[in-house]
Automatic annotation (TrEMBL):
Pfam name, any one: Trns_repr_metal
Name of this protein: Stress response transcriptional regulator YrkD
Organismal lineage: Bacteria, Bacillati, Bacillota, Bacilli, Lactobacillales
GO function terms (MF aspect): DNA binding; metal ion binding
One GO biological process term: negative regulation of DNA-templated transcription
UniProt cross-references to InterPro entries, sorted A to Z: Metal_Tscrpt_repr, Metal_Tscrpt_repr_sf
């Protein structure tokens, strides 16, 4: 997949804003639990976005008639289960 839609880009921008907010929280010495809660929210958002991007990639691979379709699908699977 070579192009990303506006929804995906907006999710990245939202996560960027959340991270900037977390930095401000840390600069103001906010409670650890509040900072961790916000960090967990950002992580969850990014994990969800990764799933969306990989799913879109898989869809385009399955519709593609190229000979390297199996390689692309294997790469997508490795991205999902990366440890």
């Amino acid at each position: 997949m070579n192009s990303y839609n506006n929804k995906m880009e907006n999710r990245i921008k939202r996560a960027t804003g959340q991270l900037q907010g977390i930095l401000r929280m840390m600069e103001k010495d906010r409670e650890c639990v509040d900072v961790i809660t916000q960090l967990s929210a950002v992580r969850s958002s990014l994990d969800s976005l990764i799933g969306v991007i990989v799913a879109e990639n898989l869809k385009s691979c399955l519709l593609d008639d190229s000979s390297d379709k199996d390689i692309k699908i294997e790469q997508a699977i490795k991205m999902i289960i990366k440890k």
